[in-house]
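Reproducibility note. Readers wishing to regenerate the assembly model reported in the main text can use the exact inputs given here. Chain order matters: entities are listed in the order in which they were concatenated for prediction.
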Amino acid sequence: MRLAVIVFPGSNCDLDLYEALHTVCGADVEYVSHKATSLAGFDGVMIPGGFSYGDYLRAGAIARFAPVMKEVIRLAKAGAPVFGTCNGFQILTEAGLLPGALKKNDSQRFVCKTVALEVVNNQTRFTHQYTAHERINLPIAHADGSFYADQATLDQLEANGQVVFRYAEENPNGSLNNIAGITNAAGNVLGMMPHPERAVEAILGNTDGLRLFKSLLTPAAAD
Amino acid sequence: MKVRIFVTYKQSVFDPQGETIKDAIHALGHQGVTGVTVGKFFDVTFAPETADVEAAVQAIADQLLVNFNMETYTYQVMEEK
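Running the prediction on these inputs yields the following structure tokens for the assembly.
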């Protein structure tokens, strides 16, 4: 599986994502510029955290118009795995690949800490190496992470098993239904505010994020 | 021609900035203030020969300036000075 880590102006977790995949997991991964017009030869897309285009207008709003996004959308529609963390999640909602939106944290503060999460759905291509309802801890670092969607969309997300991660103890940002990460209806696009790529080695103090990448790289028997 | 486009959260969406500012206003002693809404505005200037400015405004708002999951907008055509 060959993966692209998209680099936008203002991305700042691209290196973390690349290292988690390449150095820690031994994956075939390459940086791809936001200006690229083709993702031919790539089997999946990783959209990193950061502040693409300075979060101007709304977080992720301008990145949606980068040339590479046409290709990201093409791959997503074709069923390829697409993963976005933090700003990547915001970009995926702005691009219409995931429902809902991320708004300012209720606290009005940038929140940077480790939070407890529940793996709500371990039957996805990103989470099958976790156990059902497993509690994990992952770092968050964001100011605009409050997940919002109208009630009908929330009901649909819950009914379809699209809520993959939920804040398990405190809700750090005001997200509705304590949502920390969701997939699209097809299950091949995952967006989440927490940073699994920052929790993949013992030296980082936490390895709870590692199995997300291992899940992606080792398709379950059912796939 | 200049058009001012106002973008705010929908009324049903909690506006944390507005709430924080309201609290600060209360701290100033203005207890009579019951609500503050924070939004953004964009002054968009069109070339005089632009054919259908209102259609353009709507397209720009729909496709870029507004996230309809959580936001709404209004606009006004500004007086020529």
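We highlight two features of this model. The longest strand of chain A covers residues 111-119. DSSP finds five helices and eleven strands in chain A.
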